[in-house]
Amino acid sequence: MIVNTTYTDKEAARLIDTHLGESFPILQRIKLKGIGSKRMIISDVSPKMKSYLNTVDDLNYGSIELRPKGILVHIHKKLNSFSWIIPYYKLHIYNSTYFSIHADGNFIQFKKNKLYKENKAFIEKIVTQKNTILNTTDYYGV
């Protein structure tokens, strides 16, 4: 699910908090050594997400934000910002020629260049956080 986060919208914030949990408190952010990635260059996206990218030959950038129950992938198109809400149980990460994130039949591919290398530790943090959360019994309401 993608929401427009260009302006502060209580409904969008409520939707994000419902699916991914509220943002980490400051002490948890320090403990995790940050909850946001640096920006990365978007190489390709699924057909349903093409409308969220710049149509001219500009570079498209995206970043990732860690939340207690999932991640937010932020995409910037001109002056607009969009956030893709991905709970951990729907998140699939592939690391081949490109670094890609898949969920709900959609994907976003990032180029593996200098910017990717700067975010490698953050990506490992996402995988660790996902495994930790999904292995707890209360995540699924059990």
Per-chain topology:
Blueprint (H helix, E strand, L loop, with lengths): L1 E3 L5 H11 L5 H6 L8 E6 L15 E7 L2 E8 L2 E8 L4 E4 L3 E5 L2 E5 L3 H21 L8
Antiparallel strand pairs: 1-5, 2-3, 2-8, 3-4, 4-5, 6-7, 7-8
In short:
Helices cover 27% and strands 32% of the residues. With 142 residues, it is α+β, with helices and mostly antiparallel strands.
Protein described:
- The protein is α+β, with helices and mostly antiparallel strands.
- The chain has one domain (2-140): Pleckstrin-homology domain (PH domain)/Phosphotyrosine-binding domain (PTB) (PH-domain like, Roll).
- The chain is built from 3 helices and 8 strands, in the order E-H-H-E-E-E-E-E-E-E-H.
- The protein has helices at residues 10-20, 26-31, 114-134, and strands at residues 2-4, 40-45, 61-67, 70-77, 80-87, 92-95, 99-103, 106-110.
- It has an 8-stranded antiparallel beta sheet with strand order 1-5-4-3-2-8-7-6.
- Strand 6 (92-95) and strand 7 (99-103) form a beta hairpin.
- The longest helix is centred in the last third of the chain and has 21 residues, at 114-134.
- The mean pLDDT is 89.
